[in-house]
Amino acid sequence: MGKAKKVIVLLGITGMIGTLAGCGGNGAKDSKSEANAGNKDGEGKTEISILVHFDPETDNPAKVDSFQEAADKLGYKINLERVDDATYKTKIRVMLQANELPDLFYTWGGSYSEPFLSANALYPLEDAIQESGYTLYDTYAQADENGHNYVVPTGALESYCLFYNKAVFEEMGKEVPADWEALLDVVDACNAKGIGAMGLGDKDRWEGDLFYNMMVVREDADAFTDAMKDGGTFTSEPFAVAAEKVQTLIEKNAFQSGYMQATPSECVELLKAGKIAMYPTGSWQVSALQSDENLGCAVFPKTGKEDPYLSCCGNAADAGIAVSANSENKEAAAKLAVEYSKILNDHLAESGEQTYFETEIEEAGQTEMMKTYIENFKKLEKTQLWWFTYLDTAIGEPMRDLSQQQFAGEVDADDFLQQLESIIKGG
Fold it and tell me: Residue 311's Cα: distance from chain center in Å?
């Protein structure tokens, strides 16, 4: 993987998180399965409890299925419970407070893990990784200040990209924009051509929210971390400049017609059809776009002061499966976590996708787009996690509501910043 990337740690968020609510029977639980439950073959086996939020319908189905695959390999019995994302964030913290954590569970890393670390609730996994004989790439093997690795990955890091239609740019005689001025020039050219310069699927609010996150990172990669500190503010220059630039793009009709009610899947089809020139979104779309040779993938333009090889990520190098330090079977759970992570990794390798463990599995005919994406990914020097990742829904949901107002042009840049400050910092 080359040199390790520096992940920006978000500070002070744990103090901002509201009182945790109970998780009673509100119907939020999606599914629960007990592997080998009632099966005589499971009697006498080491039993490991697992809680995750992975959704097989929208996420990689292997993220759920591979637990059983790993358990079968090790001869364990597992009790697996999956709940939806919002329920999970509350439930796992309530379980922490009650000292009732499952043997295996997921953490988003960074400041999200701080309450677990402060409670000494995470079991170090470096011994289990070493004993497995598997080798993590440097990016994912960065130990904390005490020399410990507390998680194993459940997927390769995602990053923000700029997908584009090669034929559209060729017809316009333009290059894929590398900076702010070039981006505005492409917007003008697309307006003249009668197509959208950029796709945005903001029906569910998160694509606009992520776009603004990325614009802030381009102004100052440490802006969000600094804003969360005591004395920090969301009205500082990086946030203000990014908000003004978003407002400029909206006023220049940079996004396709109807973007406020569009979905990501609709943006994918528009890009393929040449109805939009570019689609800024996460690398999870590589799998949907890579088979079309007319489409390319680039880094998001240098719209501000920062180097373009910085990115927003939907996950972190220290996000993944963790083991409860209070587990009665913590050593066995650690072995299961590592085996599970490696199995997921090898499934990715079999599909020709990005991996995080070294593997002997040959890449299955990687596409030009996947190769380009991975080359760009390896150049990333710093990543900034989505703000929403660390925020409780009581903060994150109003923030996304505000983001939708921003992209609808219902609030100007100054009003947006004041409301953002109020929502996140309670000011």
Answer: 11
Distance (Å, rounded) from C-alpha 91 to C-alpha 29? Answer: 10
Tell me what pLDDT residue 144 has: 79
DSSP structural state of residue 352: T
Q: What is the rounded distance in angstroms from the CA atom of residue 333 to the CA atom of residue 337?
A: 6
Counting other chains too, the contacts that 352-359 makes at CB distance below 8 Å and 24 or more residues apart are 353/156, 353/287, 354/156, 355/137, 355/156, 356/136, 356/137, 356/139, 356/140, 356/153, 356/155, 356/156, 356/157, 357/134, 357/135, 357/136, 357/137, 358/134, 358/135, 358/136, 358/137
Do 170 and 274 fall into the same domain? yes
Number of domains in the chain: 2
pLDDT over 60 (residue 360):
yes
* pLDDT at res. 23: 33
At 350, which CATH number? 3.40.190.10
Strands 6-7 and 104-107: unpaired
Nearest one of 60, 289, 250, 263 to 162, comparing CA atoms: 289
Tokens read off for 237 = 């220059």
pLDDT digits (tens, 9 = 90+) for 195-221: 999 999 999 999 999 999 999 999 999
Contact 265, 273 (CB under 8 A): no
Cβ(313)–Cβ(210) under 8 Å?
no
Q: Between helices 413-425 and 393-407, what is the axis angle to 10°?
A: 170
Rg (CA), the chain: 22
Sign of CA dihedral 288, 205, 211, 213: negative
Burial bucket for residue 181 (CB in 10 Å: 0-12, 13-18, 19+): exposed
Distance of CA 254 to the CA centre of its chain: 25
Using the predicted structure, report yes or no on whether residue 8 has a pLDDT greater than 50.
no
Residue 142: pLDDT above 80? no
93 with 210, same domain?
no
**Cα–Cα distances in Å, from 173 out to 168, 170, 190?**
9, 5, 11
- In this structure, the strands spanning 160-165 and 276-282 are antiparallel
188 shares its domain with 281: yes
What is the DSSP secondary-structure string of 24-60?
Answer: -SSS-EEEEEETTTT-GGGTTS-EEEEEE---TTTS-
Expressed as residue numbers, the domain containing 131 is 6-156+316-367
C-alpha distances in Å from residue 239, one per residue of 220, 252, 282, 341, 425: 9, 20, 21, 37, 14
Running DSSP on this structure, what letter comes out for residue 64? H
Rounded to whole angstroms, how far apart are CA atoms 188 and 172? 11
